[in-house]
Design a protein that fits this description.
The chain is α/β, with parallel strands linked by helices. The protein has helices spanning 6-18, 23-38, 56-70, 87-99, 130-141, 211-217, 243-255, 267-276, 286-291, 311-321, 353-360, 364-369, 371-382, 417-431, 435-453, 464-467, 471-478; strands at 2-3, 47-52, 74-78, 114-118, 145-149, 170-174, 192-196, 206-209, 232-236, 260-265, 281-284, 299-304, 328-330, 347-349, 385-388, 394-396, 402-405. Helix 3 (56-70) runs parallel beside helix 4 (87-99) and helix 6 crosses helix 15. The relative contact order is 0.10. Bound molecules: ligand NPW, adenosine-5'-diphosphate (ADP) and potassium ion (K). It catalyses: (6R)-NADHX = (6S)-NADHX; (6R)-NADPHX = (6S)-NADPHX; (6S)-NADHX + ADP = AMP + phosphate + NADH + H(+); (6S)-NADPHX + ADP = AMP + phosphate + NADPH + H(+).
C-alpha cells in the first residue's frame, strides 16, 4: 500500500501517457474500479447524488455515474459549479451525454441516501470559496452515506490543513493513499480510507508497513541458534524516581527476542526491575559509569533515554559511544537538541510530537499537519532514522523513503508505552539483521498488541505493562515460517 504526493501522482499520469495509457483511459479505469468497489456498499434502491467538480476528480464522478446508470442505480449527476473543463473530464462528459444519461447543474429534491463527493481531488487549493463551503456544510448535514473520491473536498492531498470539508464515511483513493489521509486535522474527514488500484505500476517513496511486510520479514528462529545469535543489547534507562521506564523497556527488548540484555540503571531501580526481569543483567550506576568511559563487552546495539533526566551525564555518555559502531536508539530524556555529528552506525530517534517540536523548533500543530514531510526532511538532513510517534507513526529514513504504521490505538496514550516501544526496537535491531524492517516491525507489533488488548478490555484500563503480555501471542500469529 503506497502513499503518493501530488507531484508523484502527476508523474504517474505522465508516465502512463508515455506508455500509451491516455488520461481518458486512466479516468475510465478509475471510474470503473470505483464503481466495482462502491457497488459493494450500495443498496439498489438508494438515491445517489454525485457532485462533480470541473477537474479530473469530477471526471471520475462522471465515469462512475455512467456505470451506476448502466447498472440501473438511481443516480443524479450534478455539476454545482459548472460543466467540466479538464480535457479528459470534458471528453467523458460528451460521451456520458451521448449515451443519453441525465445530468444537472443544481441539486434535486432529496433526500439522498448516498452522496458521492467528486468535487475536488489532488488539484485542490485552499481556502475554498463561500459557495464550496456552503455546499459542503449542506452535504455534512444530510443523513446520507458519504463517499469521497480520492480525497474529501476541503482537504489538501499533501498537507494536513483543512477547510470546511466533506465528512466522508468512506474515502476511495486512486492509485494509492495521499499523505493527508494520515495527517491532522485532515485525517478526521476521511472515514474509512481505502486505496483503489487503477492498474498503474506502484512506485512511491512512502508506503504503509503492513501485515504482509511483517510476515515476509520476520521468520522463525533457526533450531541451532543460541543466545549469542540474537545479540546483547545495552539499555541505558531508569532512575530512582522512574524505575518503571527501564523495566518496561527491558520487557520490550526481552519479550521481542533479544539474546541478552544489560540494563544500565541505578542500584535501587535495578533491585526493583530484577524482581520482574531476572533474565537481564545490570550495570549499577550505569549512567555514571558510561559517562566516565566504562562500556560492557559484546554490545550489538544500544538504547538510551527512558526515565533519564541528567542531561549533562547523558551528553557525556553519547559523546563516549558516538564512535562505537553499534546502532543507537535515542529516546525520551536523551532527546535534547543536538547536532547529530556524522556517525558510522545508524542513529534512531523516537520522539513524540512534543519532543520533535523541541528538536525541530516547529510547533506541534505544524508537525502534525505535515508529519511525513517534516520527519523525512529531518532524517535526510541529519542522517538519522526518525520514528515520529503518535497515531500513524512515521518511520523516516535518511534516503528519503519511509513507512507509516497503522496499528495501535488510544490505549497506548498512557505513560510507559513509549518506553516499551524503545525496548522493542532495541530488541529487534539486536536480533534481526535488517535494521529497516526491524524498526518497522517493532512499531507494528507494539501497535498490534494494543489492538489485541482492546478486544478484551477497555482502552482506559490497558497499561503499558500489558503490551508485552500479549506480544508472544501476537507474534505467534504472524511468524509462521
Ligand atoms: N493517477 C491518478 O491517480 C488519477 C487521478 N485521477 C483524478 O484526477 C484528480 C486530479 O484532477 P485535477 O488535477 O484535474 O484536479 P482536481 O482535484 O479535480 O481539481 C482541479 C480543479 O479544481 C479547481 N480548484 C482547485 N481548488 C479550488 C478551490 N479552492 N475552489 C474552487 N476551485 C478549485 C481548479 O480550478 P483552477 O484553479 O484551475 O481554476 C481545477 O479546475 C485526482 O484527485 C483523481 O480524482 C483520475 O482521473 C485518473 C488517474
Ligand atoms: N492514539 C494513538 N494511536 C496509536 N498509537 C498511539 C496513540 N497514542 C499513543 N500511541 C503510541 O504510544 C506510544 C507513546 O509514546 P510516548 O508518547 O513516548 O509515551 P511515554 O510517555 O510512555 O514514553 C508511541 O509509540 C505512540 O505511537
Ligand atoms: K473529492
Amino acid at each position: 500500500m503506497f502513499i503518493y504526493r501530488e507531484v508523484e501522482i502527476r508523474k504517474a499520469d505522465e508516465t502512463a501517457a508515455q506508455n500509451g495509457l491516455s488520461g481518458n483511459a486512466l479516468m475510465e479505469t478509475a471510474g470503473r474500479s470505483l464503481f466495482l468497489r462502491i457497488k459493494e456498499i450500495l443498496n439498489k434502491n438508494s438515491r445517489i447524488l454525485i457532485l462533480s467538480g470541473r477537474g479530473n476528480n469530477g471526471g471520475d464522478g462522471i465515469v462512475l455515474a455512467r456505470y451506476l446508470n448502466q447498472w440501473g442505480y438511481k443516480v443524479d449527476l450534478v455539476f454545482p459549479f459548472g460543466e467540466p473543463k479538464s480535457d479528459s473530464a470534458s471528453e467523458h462528459f460528451r460521451y456520458y451525454k451521448s449515451v443519453g444519461y441525465s445530468w444537472s447543474t443544481s441539486i434535486g429534491d432529496g433526500p439522498y441516501d448516498v452522496i458521492i463527493d467528486a468535487l475536488l481531488g489532488v488539484g485542490t487549493r485552499l481556502p475554498l470559496n463561500q459557495s464550496y463551503q456552503d455546499l459542503l456544510k449542506w452535504c455534512n448535514q444530510q443523513h446520507a452515506l458519504k463517499i469521497a473520491i480520492d480525497i474529501p473536498t476541503g482537504v489538501l492531498a499533501d498537507r494536513g490543513e483543512a477547510d470546511i470539508a466533506f465528512h466522508a464515511d468512506y474515502t476511495f483513493s486512486l492509485h494509492g493513499f495521499k499523505p493527508s489521509t494520515f495527517l491532522l486535522p485532515s485525517n478526521t474527514y476521511f472515514g474509512q480510507a481505502e486505496s483503489i488500484d487503477i492498474g498503474l505500476p506502484q512506485d512511491a517513496k512512502w508506503k504503509i508497513w503492513s501485515e504482509k511486510n511483517v510476515k515476509r520479514t520476520m521468520k522463525k528462529r533457526g533450531s541451532n541458534s543460541h543466545k549469542g545469535t540474537f545479540g546483547t543489547g545495552l539499555l541505558v534507562a531508569g532512575t530512582d524516581e522512574m524505575p518503571g521506564s527501564a523495566m518496561l523497556a527491558g520487557l520490550g527488548a526481552m519479550k521481542i527476542g533479544i539474546g541478552k540484555l544489560v540494563i544500565a540503571t541505578t542500584p535501587y531501580a535495578a533491585s526493583i526491575i530484577a524482581t520482574r526481569l531476572p533474565e537481564a543483567t545490570y550495570l549499577h550506576d550505569g549512567l555514571n559509569k558510561l559517562a566516565v568511559g566504562t562500556f560492557p563487552d559484546g554490545i550489538r546495539a544500544m538504547a538510551i533515554g527512558p526515565g533519564l533526566t541528567d542531561e549533562k551525564l547523558i551528553d557525556q555518555v553519547l559523546e563516549n559511544v558516538w564512535e562505537k559502531e553499534i546502532p543507537l536508539v535515542i529516546d525520551a530524556g536523551a532527546l535534547g537538541k543536538r547536532e547529530f555529528a556524522p556517525r558510522k552506525a545508524p542513529i534512531i530517534i523516537t520522539p513524540h510530537p512534543g519532543e520533535f517540536s523541541r528538536l525541530t523548533g516547529l510547533s506541534v500543530k505544524e508537525i502534525e499537519a505535515n508529519r511525513l514531510e517534516i520527519s523525512s526532511q529531518f532524517a535526510l538532513q541529519k542522517n538519522v532514522i526518525v520514528v515520529l510517534k503518535g497515531a500513524n507513526t512515521v518511520i523516516a529514513f535518511p534516503n528519503g523513503t519511509g513507512f507509516i504504521n497503522r496499528t495501535g490505538n488510544a490505549a497506548l496514550a498512557k505513560g510507559g508505552s513509549g518506553d516499551t516501544l524503545t525496548g522493542m526496537i532495541l530488541g529487534l535491531i539486536c536480533s534481526e539483521s535488517d535494521i529497516t524492517s526491524a524498526i518497522a516491525n517493532a512499531v507494528y507489533l507494539h501497535g498490534l498488541c494494543a489492538d489485541e488488548l482492546v478486544k478484551e478490555q477497555n482502552e482506559r484500563s490497558i497499561v503499558a505493562g500489558d503490551i508485552t503480555n500479549v506480544l508472544g501471542r501476537v507474534m505467534n500469529r504472524l511468524i509462521t515460517d
